[in-house]
Structures are given as structure tokens and as C-alpha cells.
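Hi R.,

Here are the chain sequences for the assembly we discussed:
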Amino acid sequence: MHYWVALLLLLANPALGGEPVLMQRLKVRLPAVIEDGAQVPLRIAFDERLDPGEYLKTIQVQAPLNPEPDVIRFEFLQAVVPIRLATRIRLSESQRVVIRAQSNTGRQWQTEVQVRVALSGCLTGPAPAAETMTMHTPRVAMPDAGGAGEVRAQVRHPMENGFRNGVRDHAITPNRVQTLSISRASSPLAVVQFHAGTASNPYVSLWLNDSRDLTFSWQDLQGLELYH
Amino acid sequence: MKQRSISAVSRRTLLAGLMLSPLLLGGCQRMLSGRPSEGRVVIIGGGFGGATAARLLRQQAPQLDVTLVEPANLFYTCPFSNLVLAGLLPLKAIEQDYAGLIQAGVSHRRQQALDIDPIRKQVILDDGARMEYDRLIVSPGIDLRWDAIEGYNAAAAERVPHAWKAGPQTLLLRRQLEEMPNGGSVIITVPGNPYRCPPGPYERASLIAHYLSRHKPRSKLLILDSKDRFSKQALFMSAWKDLYGERVEWVGLSDDGKVMRVDPQRREVETDFSSRHRAEVLNVIPPQQAGRIAATAGLTDASGWVPVDPDTFESRHAAGVHVIGDACIAAPMPKSGFAAGMQARVAVTHIISELTGQDVVTPQLSNICYSLVEPGYAISVGGQYEVDQGALVLKPGTDHLSPLEASPRLRQSEARSAEGWYRATTADIWGG
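And here is the predicted structure of the full complex:
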């Protein structure tokens, strides 16, 4: 008995090269080297068997060295199994991105991923253009015939946080899309909260076993809503 | 073509040596060269990185044996290949051979390297033969990822070219453009970072647009991009507007530019949000990875590229093995022929220092990417790089970009610089 406890403790100690057993259930994919920190693809997967009646309730992502550390938060109002998410985030510099998950019974998981942001210097933004500060062009894509697959949703918005070169410029008014709500047959399924670390033109992909009767609604900081 | 000749006696010894153990073979090879050697460097890949390394080793440390493992007799440069496919240059203009390097004393082993044994320090060739090395430089370029876009595999590339390795694919795309009727459309799909030559797809779009404007005036070009930002973007987009008007349309990631599926038969692509686009000429530039041998030999990481020590370009997975050029992870240095040559300098410097004890000066890493927007009009971006806290960074204040507003004379002078760089560099590396 003591042997197994000792082994678990050994495995759970990162200093000894072993990963905490619970960490492995929350799988995160981020590029190790990032050339454009403005649109970084992030994938999260969780398909461990949970206790009867237990399901993953929230997943939140933080980038502690960003000017504002909150990146994005997923909240599930119904059980979504398995969890396979994708989105695009902003990273201002090399750091350990922290992803935390919590189930409806309070159990927690955490994964950290070290990334290097190497601004290539080859990238320049587009010529200054009049970017509208309102949401437009919502896009949704679904698997055929309401079957299982990746459901993708995106809306156009510059997601202005008011930072320039990592410093808050008070002449700029922040304006961003705040939430994306996904419902099935009018019953709320998931709410995604976009924070400062969510990339512009927020993009969310979610695996669903049943993609029938889905509606999408985006809300911005001004309270405006867009439906699809 | 001059070759180092081996006498009949030495040939028999060589054959006898081949039958003996690999260690003994290594010793025999060194004796056969007819002069004492302080070490043997093997180079895999005869492109910008490998050929530069071979040339520099012969120039700076002639006492070392240098063998270039490269199955081809000819190398077609990706730089300037966009001019070939736009009909502005013949293929011969981008063709290089290994005669000059052989004359300089490089052994050209015309075989494929299949694997590396870094413990026994051997390269395993396609016939099973094993080649000993004291130091190894691996410069295998890229391989296209045939698993990245549904429907786009090696067979599809015969109908839907990538032309991201110059040579027959360049001619294939050229032919398709020539055969396209006036009024037909062209689509170029561009992958996300990292990929070989960041501004390359946009130079290609510029020069194809130039060809269309002269020869197929009713035809248009659509770029479907998996990115929202790209190298020299403001410069390209303003040039497209000025020179080509509505002929060139660019659709970025956030406007549903990411291609998920290709139907090679119909030359049709489908994007993430289910838009479909069809064209008479479809050029798919798929996501890429390090040249195959890098993965086979266990040098790559999960990204499919090779992590290296930025001070020496030695692989982090294998001591004594330097990986340079497109295959290695050197961001923020872009994947370019220019960068490959610079990285070759660093690797060679380190190798010479280790094998011969010579004093060497660590060269400065830099890069310049020239893009030709149309004949006589070029733009560029560049910078210098240094190692800071174990990683490569852009040296502050060294990044330069062509100005957005410039006189035709400046654009012309940049075009001349681009041509000058190409002529001088290819002559230095491959010239006889």
C-alpha cells in the first residue's frame, strides 16, 4: 500500500521529472515557437472518464505576462463530452500559459505550457485602415446533417484592449466582444467569455456529438447582440 | 567537370575496405584521400545551407575532408523561381550544379541520406552503406506536409502544384499559367507560420499578376491565406493596388481564408467556414516540416522542425550534428536561403574551431529578404540577429523595411540589389 502511495507521490513531483497524474488529463496544444503573437492557435482536449453525473464546467486560460492576464473562459451549462476546443489567443511575450479546468463537483485540473514568442520582425500590420469597432460578419460552420463534429463560430471585431506596446494608452477606448453563447433548442449549452487575451475576430471551435438546432449569439461590451 | 581521380590500386583497397567494419572503413577513406586529414565533415543537402557550408569549409579549413551527400546533380534555387513561373526567366537561370564545389575539393556523394546514427557518428545512405563523420551538417530543407490539407497529397501536386521546391514543379505551374485561357482565374493558398520564405507567396502573386496583366488581361488572382498578417504586407498591398488594381484579391484568416480541403480534380478548395473557390490554375502551398531525414533521425520536435542551440546550430537532440536552413527552428530568423547561408557560417566556424583548434570569429547572423513586385520594382526586409538568454532575437535597431512611399528610382535600385545579391551569392556558393 505504501509502495503505491510513494509511487504516486513520485509521479506527482514535477521536480523529479514526473508530471502530476491529474495534469495529463487536460491536454493543451500551443506552438512552442510563435512567430506572430497576435493570432496563436490554441487547442484544448479533455476526455477522461469522470464520475457519474460529473462533467467539466469551466476551462479558463491565463497568460500571466500579458498586460492583462485573462485570455478566455469556457463555461459549459450541459455536459459536453469529449471536450475538444480550439481558439486563437494573443500572447505578448514568452511565458507559461496556464489552463485550468473545473468540474461541476469541484474537482480541478491544471496544465501549463511554456511558449516562446519570437516576433519575426518580418511581419508588419496592414496599412492603417478604418476598422469599425462593432461586431460584423458572424460566421458559423457545422458538420453535415446535424451530426457529430467540429462546430466553428467567428465574428469580426478588432478586440481593442487599449494597449500599445504593452502599455495602456488612455486615449483609446477598449471595445471587444464579451461573450459568445451557444444554445441548443433554446437551452443554453456553453458560454465563452472573451478577455483581453482573446485574439481579434474571436474564433471558437467546439466538438459536439449532436450539432442540430444550434443558435449562436455574441454580445459586446456595449450590450449589443448579434445572432446566427 | 573535374573530379579527384582515385588510382586503380586505391580502388581495390577501397573495395576491400568496404567489406571491413565501418570503423576501419572510416580510416581507409581518410588514407585514400592521399593527404592527411584532420577530420571529416559530412554535409547532408546541397541547397543554400549545405552548399555554403561545403564552400566555406574548403576555403577556411582545407585540411578537413568534406563530403556533400546530395542525390541530385543540379539544384534549382527557390529564390528567383517566381520569375521563372511568371515567364520572366528561363529555368536555366536558376539552375546550379556542383562542378565548382567538386573542383574546390568537395566530394559529392550522389546518394540519399536515409538516417543518422549520432552515437557511432555515421550517416546511413540509401544503399545501406554507412559513412563516418567527425562532424555532421544537416541542411535538408523542407518536406511538404501531405497530411495537413484534406485531399492534398503528393499525387494531387501533379495537378495542383505547390512549386515550393523549385525545378519541375516550377515548370508545371508555368505551363498551367500559359495554357490557362484569358479570363480564367488563379488561386494561391498560403499556409500559417512557420513556412519556407515568408514573403514568397506574395512575390509569386505579384509576378503572376504581372503576367496576367500583360497576357491574360481578363484573368484574376485570389490569395487565400491562413494568416491575418504577412511579411511586408503594407508594401505588397499598396503595390498591388497601384499596379494591378482589382486584379489581386487577398483574403486573410479572419475573413475565412484558411483552406481545409482540396479537390484536385475540380481544382476547388473549401475553407474553414465552408466557402468554396474554384480556379483554372490552383497553386496550393501546404504547411511544411523539416526535410524527412530530420524526423527519421529523431532530430525534430513535436512541431516537425529541428530545435538547435542558437550559438552553434547544433541539434538539441544529437551532439556533433548541426542543423541549418529551413529545417531548423531559428525564429525570429525567417526560413530563407540568405539565412541558411548565414547559419552555415556559424556552424562551420564552430566545427573548424573544434576540429582544428584554429581561432575563428563568430560571424554575425543577418537576413535580407528581397521580393520582386514587378520587373524593376523590389522591396526588402531584413535585420541582424543575436543570442540573448539562450534564444535568437532580433538585434534592436537593425530591422529595416523598404519605405511605403518611395520613388521609382528606389524601387529600381532595390531590384538591382536583389539581382546583385542573387548573382554574387550563387557564384560564391556554386560557382567554378
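Residues 159 and 379 of chain B are 32 Å apart (CA to CA). Chain B touches chain A through 40 residues (CB under 8 Å).

Let me know if anything looks off.

Best,
T.
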